[in-house]
């Protein structure tokens, strides 16, 4: 991404930045799913709350 910025390739830099954001979001979502409270109903506020 930095190389694309340095070369003034805005389209490539934007694409790479968006990919990075999606990877980070997927990582956070996966982490939050593993931290759900055991025994909480799926989709409930308790299941989504951090432990």
Give an overview in words.
With 51 residues, this protein is an all-alpha fold. It has a domain at 1-31. 67% of the residues lie in helices and 0% in strands. It is rod-shaped.
Summarize the structure.
This protein has 51 residues and is mostly helical. The chain has helices spanning 2-6, 10-34, 45-48. The radius of gyration is 17 Å and the shape is rod-shaped.
Order of helices and strands: HHH
Strand content: under 5%
* Largest β sheet strand count, sense and barrel closure: none
Principal-axes geometry comes out as rod-shaped
Number of alpha- plus pi-helical segments:
3
Helix content: 55-70%
Average of the residue pLDDT scores: 82
Distance between the termini: 36 Å
Contiguous low-pLDDT stretches (5 residues minimum) are: none
Please report the total strand number as a whole number: 0
The radius of gyration over CA amounts to 17 Å
Structural class: mainly alpha
Question: What order do the helices and strands come in, and which of them pair?
Answer:
Blueprint: H1 2-6, H2 10-34, H3 45-48
């Amino acid at each position: 991404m930095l190389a694309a910025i340095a070369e003034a390739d805005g389209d490539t830099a934007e694409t790479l930045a968006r990919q990075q954001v999606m990877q980070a979001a997927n990582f956070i979502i996966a982490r939050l799913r593993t931290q759900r409270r055991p025994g909480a109903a799926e989709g409930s506020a308790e299941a989504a709350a951090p432990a």
